[in-house]
Design a protein that fits this description.
Layout (H helix, E strand, L loop, with lengths): L7 E2 L3 E2 L18 E4 L3 E13 L3 E2 L5 E2 L4 E5 L2 E2 L3 H10 L4 E8 L2 E8 H5 L5 E15 L4 E4 L5 E2 L8 E15 L7 E7 L7 E2 L2 E3 L2 E5 L12 E2 L9 E8 L5 E11 L4 E5 L2 H7 L3 E2 L5 E4 L2 E10 L2 E9 H9 L2
Amino acid sequence: MGWSKRLMLSTSFATLLFFLPFQHDISASSGDRVIPMGHSIGIQMDLSGIFVTNDVLVNNEQWLKAGDSIVRLNGTDIISLGDFEHAMMKAKKEKIHMNISRKGAAVEVLAEKDAVKRLLPFLKDRTEGTGTLTYVDPQTGTYGALGHQIVDSSLKSPPPFKHGAIYLSEIEQIKKSVPGTPGYKISSIVDDEEYLGTIKKNGVYGIFGTWNDAYKKVLAEPLEIMQPTELQAGAAEIFTTVKGTEVEKFSIRITDVEEEQFHFILTDSKLLEATGGILQGMSGSPVIQNGKFVGAVTHMFVDEPKKGAGLFLVTMRDGERRK
């Protein structure tokens, strides 16, 4: 996969900086325990086809649109970029017949061969980025991360995918947040041959999947899941990674507790010195209060990067269970 040899910006996915509609449906029972994580992760998803990332003119009148999926080329099924390149090598005529899926509708395009040759830089069959691992459930062998849905920044939609995995990543640089401009992490995969887990679901409340049992060195002790009615305004902590692969605890203050979410402010001087506030890529960082697992960081206030909002873990866990 080659990830260990190149850097990743946390902006590979469209970062959700504004509030999503929450559906508050508490299904966790008192005493449920999961392991809080906070590790920076690289996320890779193999798409279910190849997709166009920009509007591209392919003949005098017709454009391929960003988000289009190329289904067939001259009658050959196209599943990957390799299929596309092979089909183009076989093409003899100056006109290329393309079958496109556009927002669920079938579209046929007769394209100029030279225009299709120039199309390759605007195609993708994989999406990738970074985020933060939220929890591992040692009872079910599953995990949850991010606390919000992945939206591909070029497709501007949740990417349809056939395979996906998460990997431990190492923070190499940080671009600090400043009011009006969110900061971000620059990281790289530690070992692209050793995945932490597979991705089974990209849902509204995060990504979820099966944990790799062979990867036990990052696991800590499980904590009891806090019920939303227990959360109080006041001191709390987040677990996150801002340097290398080390998960650290940083102080925050819960400022508002609502039925569907909670607000907080970063108070840890060490964290603020390193990041300037919440960063893109910190989504999913666990929030802990009084030794109980509250939830995950999901949003920041762009104009006040010290301020953020979080999703209750019981809601995130309910999102994992829903089909």
